[in-house]
Amino acid sequence: MSNSTATLTASSKPADIPVVPRARISAARVLVVGDVMLDRYWFGDVNRISPEAPVPVVRVQKKEDRLGGAANVARNAAALGAQAGLLCVVGHDEPGERIVELLGESKVNGYMERDPALPTTIKLRVLSRQQQLLRVDFEDAPNHEVLRACSDRFTELLPQHDVVLMSDYAKGGLTHVTEMIGEAKRAGKPVLVDPKGDDWERYRGATLMTPNRAELRDVIGSWKSEEDLLDRVTKLRAELDLTALLLTRSEEGMTLFTDSQVVHTSAEAREVYDVSGAGDTVIATVATMLGAGVPLVDTIVYANRAAGIVVGKLGTATVDYTELFA
Fold it and tell me: What is the pLDDT of the chain when averaged over all its residues?
């Protein structure tokens, strides 16, 4: 480990987490920008195999819609009590209207650009006895004119928010992400990025990036040790002008890399039920706490605690203020 970098370990026990007053969190204004989708769940029983093919027949008994992608990130921030805004593109269709409805129920301020030619992204999951049997995706990319309108709307919304969060799911909604990051930096706003793919040049200048292990490995390659990891991340941060990088490591917790220190917080010992959406919870919690005035290095303890709670729930879920500080 480099002599110039201090390595710290942060405890993630609930008793060690200072309570952030509700009033401070409710004053936090977080603008989420990115790809939204509708997560649809069909639940049913399987009692036989189809005579048409060797596949189970699911008799659907319950349907449930949830916000996915960037919409789930915004919903997580709102669940904690922040003022969450969401800038995105959806289609002029039933799933798009359903997203608008769910955003209202989640107390998220939706700033929607509508593309009449775009089918709203849907991820349909079929489950039986709490086990996922199948996922079907419906998606396409928005057109250039709508994306440009999104950029113009971003300029209007920027002064009204404290923190900007880019949630990339590679659906085309963040085509102009480099311009947006530059604009936010010039306005003095911290920019958090949940990346997708291996082209991270487009995120240049971000305040914080929050990749998981697989996402980081695709960019910097496999590391042989913690010292090797630090060297690779330090080089990456210098190349992309990143203030910090938060590596989420599943059962190993998470590690924050900054110029002055490396801070690791261990995962809480919990039964993992479903990890989908945990990354959304992490970055939404960091953004909310930053907006509430919590120093970046301290936000990861809250994010780790929130992640430990949300993986115990089915599907894309949230953590509210009471759960976080229970």
Answer: 90
